[in-house]
Amino acid sequence: MSKLLSNYCRREQGFTILELLIVLTILMVILSFSVLSLGNFAETMQKRLFITQLQSDLYYAHAYAIHQKEPILVNFSITENKYQATVISNNKLLFQRKLPISIYLQQSNLTKFTITRDGTVSNFGTILFRVHNESIKLTFYIGRGRFSVQE
């Protein structure tokens, strides 16, 4: 009996090629699904980063106008696919952002507006951005410079 057991243990020294192929096939299937979902994740993160940056820039321009008591001109350029803010009195550029390749300005009834010294917005309206098959709507309201971003 012990001789039979020792012969059995000597034969079990590794995996067969069939077992290795099955394990590798399962790993490849799992990895292919994760790579496909990683592309969607990167697009979503790029969109989120853009929205966060846009909101931060607009809050900064608003705070700068109130604190420095100087009007700020915010301009959205559809042809150059960018937006920027400048101080009107001395033409100082506060920021200029080129939009990522996957994000572009679709249409707007508000290409430029002024944030006044007291923080109000001179014009109101909406700006639409396009991200693949989705749109982002930036809306400026009448009043104290309030805006909202809707996906």
Low-confidence stretches: none
Strand order of the largest sheet: 3-2-1-5
Domain count: the total is 1
Please give the share of residues in helix: 40-55%
Identify the CATH homologous superfamily: minor pseudopilin epsh domain
Any descriptors?
151 residues; alpha+beta; minor pseudopilin epsh fold; 4-stranded antiparallel sheet; elongated
Could you characterize what this model shows?
InterPro entries: ComGD (IPR016785), N_methyl_site (IPR012902), Pilin-like (IPR045584). Pfam families: N_methyl. It is built from 2 helices and 8 strands, in the order H-H-E-E-E-E-E-E-E-E. It has 151 residues and is α+β, with helices and mostly antiparallel strands. The chain has one domain (16-150): minor pseudopilin epsh domain (minor pseudopilin epsh fold), CATH 3.55.40. The protein has a 4-stranded antiparallel beta sheet, with helices on one face.
